[in-house]
Amino acid sequence: MTRSTIELAPSVEDHRIARHAAAAIVLTVAEAAIPLPLPGVKPGLANIVTLIVLARWGWREAVWVALLRVFAGSLLLGQFLAPGFFLSLSGAIASLVVLGLAVHLPRRWFGPVSHSILAAFAHIGAQLVVARLWLVPHDGVFYLTPVFAAAAVVFGLVNGLVAARLLAELAAAERAAALPRA
Amino acid sequence: MTLGAWLHLIRPGDVLVALAGLGVCAQAVLLLWQGGAPDGVVVRAGGKVFAELDLSRRRIVEVPGPLGLTRIEIEPGRARVAADPGPRQYCVRQGWLSRAGAVAICAPNQVSLTLTGRGADYDALNY
């Protein structure tokens, strides 16, 4: 009998995506424990990881990390295929599309903070549209838009600042590691 | 880490994006949360429009009816029936009206006071 095995050799890139996705999933699960005043208003801490991956490794890896986070996070929280899952999936897809465009903005002028705020707006925009079309077919869902928009600015700013700082520290650490030892 | 160090992470375009975001918030508030604000009043007497006024300044309108004069008081953003010769005084006791679509009807004297505006609670009232 011949032994038939299928070998999947994970590349360096695969390992990196898995590591980042794991970090994002941890943040998603931790965030689920925070009580929130309104459904839909949450910090979205996992997006910090997406922003860092976007800045360091590019849009393709950011898409992998964000979507893995949505699927695995919802499985862990028992939300898979529940309405909340489709809301976060639509938000994630919309913000990834916007991030794909936003990375082409001049780097000198627009940093992770811009990316974060723009992505946060894409996130709530897509969620509101999905909620209006599917979950609550009434214009009443738009009543809370100002609250969601304010949350997008605040959390977008905070997440963007955290991402920018972590990126700066990672860059500093890399510079230090690259220095020739005396 | 000091505040200055955090500010150092913000690039000029980021400020623009954040301001644009706040602008979207303000627009959304104006668009979605001002629905109940009235922009004018319509006074009817005997089924006919007696006066159409805006709510920008204080004034008093006296409307003649079969029983006598109904006195309507208008202030910025609100209006009320201040005095009416009717026997039960329902329209007077309604007090200040401040939402678009609100109505005070003094049926005995055939006078009504309606606040107009976008997002009124009623399209029409029939009585």
Could you give a short description of this structure?
The complex is a heterodimer of chains A (182) and B (127). Chain A is an all-alpha fold and 182 residues long. Chain A contains six helices and no strands.
Q: How would you explain this protein's 3D organization?
A:
The complex is a heterodimer of chains A (182) and B (127). Chain A is an all-alpha fold and 182 residues long. Chain A has one domain (12-178): Arp2/3 complex 21 kDa subunit ARPC3 (Orthogonal Bundle), CATH 1.10.1760. Helix content of chain A is 71%, strand content 0%. Chain B is an alpha+beta fold. In chain B, strand 4 and strand 5 (78-83) form a beta hairpin. Chain B is elongated and about 75 Å long. The chains are: A mainly alpha (182), B alpha+beta (127). Chain A binds chain B through residues 105-106, 108-114, 117-118, 121, 142-143, 145-146, 149-150, 152-153, 156-157, 160-161, 164-165, 168, and chain B through 1, 6, 9-14, 17-18, 21-22, 24-25, 28-29, 32-33.
Secondary-structure map with pairings?
The complex is a heterodimer of chains A (182) and B (127).
Chain A: H1 12-32, H2 46-57, H3 59-77, H4 83-102, H5 112-135, H6 145-178
Helix pairs in contact in A: 1-2, 1-3, 2-3, 2-6, 3-4, 4-5, 5-6
Chain B: H1 3-8, H2 12-33, E1 40-45, E2 48-54, E3 59-64, E4 69-75, E5 78-83, H3 90-93, E6 103-106, E7 111-116
Antiparallel strand pairs in B: 1-2, 1-7, 3-4, 4-5, 6-7
